[in-house]
TrEMBL record:
Keywords: Heme, Iron, Membrane, Metal-binding, Signal, Transmembrane, Transmembrane helix. Pfam families: Cytochrom_C1. GO terms for molecular function: electron transfer activity; heme binding; metal ion binding. Residues 1-18 form the signal peptide. Binds 1 heme c group covalently per subunit. The chain crosses the membrane at residues 216-234. Its main location: membrane. This is Cytochrome c1. It is found in: Membrane.
Length: 243
């Protein structure tokens, strides 16, 4: 009986995690080989996210070198904390003050892509909307009662929820969609691309060696295949004279 209970205890969290979000997510077609996208994502992250959030397990220099930014240029244009280029990407915000302002300390974002997933992040960035009932005047469709201001409003414009009539399965239905007032620096297509770039960068930060790991995996599989062939031939050689 105890073994059964232990098995259930281990399986329940796994099942909950596998269930994922209850709302459909938009597909994030990120590309870790696209250095231009990673560089744009790094620029957005450094300018709009790092003021409150950390990426404390990632170093500036490693980041600049990996995504093709000259170290001196990255230090000049993308590093605002005054630390050395070899330091970790840590926000200068006071943690106790941040906890008082936001209700909790802003979470570290180094591993957020591995915890939430790229699709969730991409959808989250594009799901803010104006909500005067909230302390910061915004809410989020997939993260209800989110406790942060929408820092990218100047890029997107003011997002709002509106009800439209659309034909779904041959029937007219009222659906809620997000729209902006057009006062942002980017149009809708450009903003979606910017959020994909930011998602791409956070996926990279979550596992900087992902591409190298995948390349090494191919070599390992190739080695094991060759070893298998040699092992079969050796086995045949040993057993050839056995009647």
């Amino acid at each position: 009986m105890k073994r059964i209970l232990l098995a259930v205890a281990f399986l329940i969290p796994s099942a909950v995690f596998a269930a994922g979000p209850s709302m459909p997510l938009d597909k994030a077609n990120y590309d870790l080989t696209d250095n231009a996208s990673l560089q744009r994502g790094a620029q957005i992250f450094m300018n709009y996210c790092l003021g409150c959030h950390n990426a404390q397990y990632q170093r500036y220099q490693r980041t600049f070198e990996d995504i093709g930014i000259p170290v001196d240029l990255g230090e000049e244009l993308l590093q605002f904390t005054g630390d050395g280029v070899g330091s970790h990407m840590v926000s200068a915000i006071d943690k106790s003050a941040a906890a008082e302002w936001f209700g909790l300390t802003p979470p570290d974002l180094t591993l957020v892509s591995r915890v939430r997933g790229a699709d969730w992040l991409y959808t989250f960035f594009r799901s803010f909307y104006a909500d005067e009932s909230r302390p910061f005047g915004v809410n989020n469709v997939i993260f209800e009662n989110v406790g942060m201001p929408w820092m990218l409003e100047e890029l997107q414009g003011t997002p709002r929820k509106v009800t439209e009539t659309k034909v779904v399965n041959g029937k007219e239905q009222e659906v809620t969609v997000l729209t902006t007032d057009g006062n942002g620096r980017l149009n809708a297509e450009e903003f979606d691309q910017a959020m994909l770039d930011l998602t791409n960068f956070l996926v990279y930060v979550g596992e900087p060696v992902k591409l190298e790991r995948q390349r090494m995996g191919l070599f390992v599989i190739g080695f094991l295949f060759v070893l298998l062939v040699l092992t079969i031939l050796l086995k045949k050689e040993y057993w050839r004279d056995v009647k």
